[in-house]
Description:
By secondary structure, the protein is α/β, with parallel strands linked by helices. The protein has two domains: 170 residues, Periplasmic binding protein-like II (D-Maltodextrin-Binding Protein, domain 2, 3-Layer(aba) Sandwich); 169 residues, D-Maltodextrin-Binding Protein, domain 2. Helix content is 40%, strand content 16%. It is built from 17 helices and eleven strands. α9 crosses α11. The longest helix has 15 residues. It is globular, with a radius of gyration of 22 Å. The N terminus is likely disordered.
Amino acid sequence: MTKRSTAALLLASAASIALMNTSAFAQAGRDYIYIVGSSTVYPFATVVAERFGRGSQFKTPKVESTGSGGGLKLFCDGVGVDYPDVANSSRAIKQSEMDRCSANGVHEIIEVKIGYDGIVVAAAMSSATMSLSRKDLFLALAKQVPGASSGQLVANPYKTWKDVNPTLPARAIEVLGPPPTSGTRDAFAELALEAGCQEIDWIAALKSSDSERFLTICHTVREDGVFVEAGENDNLIVQKLEANPSALGIFGFSFLDQNADKVKGEPIDGIAPSFDAIADGSYPVSRPLYFYVKKAHVDVIPGLRGYLREFTSDRAWGEFGYLSDRGLIPLPDEERSQVAAAVADLSPMSAAKN
Length: 354
């Protein structure tokens, strides 16, 4: 049996973990923190990792942008040096993911809610502003839309925004967005498409009578080339918007904030995306951000506890911390204190999600 295999087996036992020597574990496989997950959380995790690496005796953590779903899949694959220590996510972990973690021996997971972000519909600075409603977005992007009679669905026929809403310009519908593995895609489907979908009475009624059909109608995006999956690379979306001013792009507010000289956020339901509008809840398409940590890896992977301490420090995620300068909307003071205390105590979340 290899040293790597031995380390993985030892990690699977909490009793053995407590007895392991950190340096021996590092020699067995890894002496740095390994982080995967959300492209939205990636910039925040990266700056914390860089500051932690510069200000401590530990190596700078390795951070990969794999998407929330892809990152949680890797995270839940197992315990040990071959598997990530941390998974960033722009949505809460799903029960199915918790079950998969448990099946693979990942039993104690620490949930860290880090702040809030808005999902923006962005355009090139040179394009004319369009004020969109969530119903407009559903009708423009859904695979199937209501037909002439109640209860009827038809393949989405809309080609221009004017087809969707007569008050909008006759501009071709072209939207660049994240893939299904992205937490941003999940959150956009729930907060924008589903909210717009529910404005149609007979579809809204399905939520209680046939929830599976309701979600299928509201969350399924058209596949005829109008919606273009741009991968997990938000920089690519910005480049494409600059090259094509008639297109729109979907990504997190923090990325909009970092590229404010190149792109702008379109108002949704009359509210433009801004730090204040997301913080006070008036911007309709906003969501919390998270990362998840394996308790079994804390105090075994060198520096992991220190990374958690740095991320949850006021200088990082506080109201005037360096992460807010990058576009993170901080948690309210009381909630931030509660999360920080739970992280310091290494309190794992419940195995069953509410």
